[in-house]
Amino acid sequence: MASAEYPLEGIRITDFGQVWAGPILSGLLANMGAEVIKIETRKRLDSVRLGPDNVERDPEKDPWFQCINRNKLSITVDFSDERGVALLKKLVKISHVVSENFSPGVLKRHGLDYDSLVKIKPDLIMVALPGAGSFGPMADLVTYGPSIVGLCGYDRMVGYEGERVLGMQQPYADVVAALYGAYSVLAAINHQQETGEGQYIELCQWEAATAVMGEALMESVMNGRNPGTLGNVQPGMAPHNNYPCQGQDKWVSIAIKTDDEWGAFCRAIGSPEWAKEERFADGFLRWQNRKEMDRLVGEWTRGRTHYEVTELLQKAGVAAAPCLSMDERLEDPHFQDRQAFVPIEHPVIGTGWVTSIPWKMSDTPGGVRTPAPLIGQHNQYVFGELLKMSQDEINYLVQEKVIY
Amino acid sequence: MPPKALQGLRVLEFAEFVSGPYCAKLMADLGAEVIKIEPPDLGDESRRRGPFPNDLPDQDASGLFLYLNTGKLGVTLDPSKLTGRRIFEKLVAQADILIENNPVGVMSKLGLGFDSLKTINPKLIMASITPFGQSGPYAHWKSYYLNTFHAGGEGYTLPGGIGWQMYPERPPLKAGGFIGEYNCGVAAATAIVGAAFGCLMCEAGQYIEISEQEVLASLMRTDLGKYNDGWVESRATRSVPIGGFIHCKDGFVQLIPLWKHMWTALVAAMGNPEWAGEARFQHERLMAGWQGVTRVSDDILRDREEANERIEQWAMQYNSEEIYTVVQRHGCIAAPVCSVADLFSSKQLQAREFIPEVEHPEAGCLKYLGAPYKFSETPWRIDKPAPLLGRHNEEVYCNRLGYSRQELVQMRRAGII
User: Fold this and answer.
1) Segment B399-413, tens digit of pLDDT
2) Residue % of chain A over a pLDDT of 90
3) A201 at the B interface (CB within 8 A)?
4) Cβ–Cβ gap A323/B369 under 8 Å
5) What domain range is B142 assigned to?
6) Which of residues B337, B355, B375 is at a domain's end?
7) Is position B236 within any domain?
8) B275 CA: distance to closest CA in chain A (Å)
9) What strands, in cross-sheet order, belong to the sheet with A251-255?
10) CB of A343 closer than 8 Å to CB of B220
11) What is the CATH number of the domain that holds B177?
């Protein structure tokens, strides 16, 4: 089933994913060779096709959409029409996985929920990603990426040390949920291969965003303390911060844990007088006097570029790295060497960069094969070739705006 | 009892701190058998990180360790000694998967690189998680989590919105805790189970290497899209410049008037104050340059600050719940900013049985977190607490590898286990 390069070759996914979480989940599986068929309709476009970044307001030109939907196929089906529902059921019958991130209940209203679909495809694997879960007293909560991060307690930890909460202000929960979602689907595929049994997976985005803060939760459970804003601080480590460098908004991170590292750091920066002062003599004192030390380290870094500082300190065995902006990441020799970003040709947008796969497998690497689909680009392939519908039937449904 | 999804999979973990152990924990909770190898005496780094019950350091009761290592068998082993390496090889021979996150080159130096191990077990899947991956000019860089996080990209754009406006001169900020490490753990588990499926088909093992920097960079999606549009994301352009995390009577509340109709809704929720009617506080003006296309004038920056101050003055009269309920009802995105303690008292999470209790011989009975996924057929469960250091030496070395108890005593004296 699997070809050498793509471990999920032969796995077909009917993807109702919208916006971020669902499409990122299916995108991870598409990277590994799954055939992901994205269900769209012109009646109600995936809102990412018209995101705030889309300057020309052309749904075929959205760069965010392109980034997260490469490697997928697109078909247009209006499933508010019964005939559309029938079409999708045919597709589910020849799929292995259905993925969706609508609000709870939306697919059920159209007869496309797990209970209905499992009747036509008994070993179906289906994953849904409700914000707060499909049951429980708050199941109806209307969530939006950034609000889940606030809800889960995570935002409370983002801000400068001991100061006001600034929060992520990003739909970070979507990404985290998508990662857990991809993992859970693969685990279910694994189980299905062993036993032939499919199943339903409910992935609660709120819970996913919560699961990544183990130590903070244990602090609350063990000692009744609620972790607050910590900035770049790691208790016990100093220096441990970003320091200003030459240029506009350029920074380097430096982190020191042991006395040996501190010694190497001092030698690397030319053993200045201040570094020999008693107040920086050991880890505890450095930690206590970290604010003053941050200022002094910053005075040293200010005259150098972030790459210069990094090179000098890495050579001395001290952990340092440039804080990289997007353009720098694309030009960075390490990212380039590892081909972490790849250019891809899109018929409307032209050449654009997308992220490659964040892991390298020796035998089944996967890869970026196709750009994000145009709206309904694969109608002919899916309805004609896969579902073996006659051209007349397809034309009729197009005319009736069922395939729309 | 129904089988778990990864039942039958045998995982060997030679990893510490967060990413590798979390990856193996995810697999243990879904039924894989995980044997965790720790260095004798010291154990995993996370045993020293805490938090500790009552702030009393105890290597068997560190909160971070307990959270990341449920469901595993724990053994101690020093593979830099010949006997230790031979035992390691015997364990590899009985495993399907090896997860490790040692600095680049350590495994080869120990004679335990993939090329050596696959001669022992041709079907082995080995996954290495490191800050910058195994190849490329930075592969050997020393990196703590702070460095990896900021080299990945998210750091460069934090804090955006109100945070940048208040502190434009301050350094970029790390997100709280070790979120990037956890994400790398989930990404690694995803890669491994995907590879296992591929290997099941072609009956061969393979090597997977995961760069934490790349995982973090791949999770950023808005800034690459914007770059394709011709501009570079920075703190100045990230997040919504009006609203954000606003002080209220009992803490903070999050308000996100992303679109014009949402700003109108927020203004209405505040009772349509006179100031909001002024031309300089109109949505399109306050949001100008948000997409990075035009440069924002100092006037606009000042007006944004003033708008945020005025929103905050209003918010300070009410509690968070009063605010987000009324703002949401008017049609603007609004959300509570919960604390960790709020999670444990959440009726929603309780109803979903997301907060199981686990009994641990040293730390006692504590609340943990469940999994974010619920499988209809294959249960998720924490079968056992995190192991005490070397807790399963006898079970693994005697019962499975055939060493005698006397030999274990000798190996302990020799510092091998």
Assistant:
1) 999 999 999 999 999
2) 84
3) yes
4) no
5) 10-219+346-413
6) B337
7) no
8) 25
9) A240-244, A251-255, A319-323
10) no
11) 3.40.50.10540
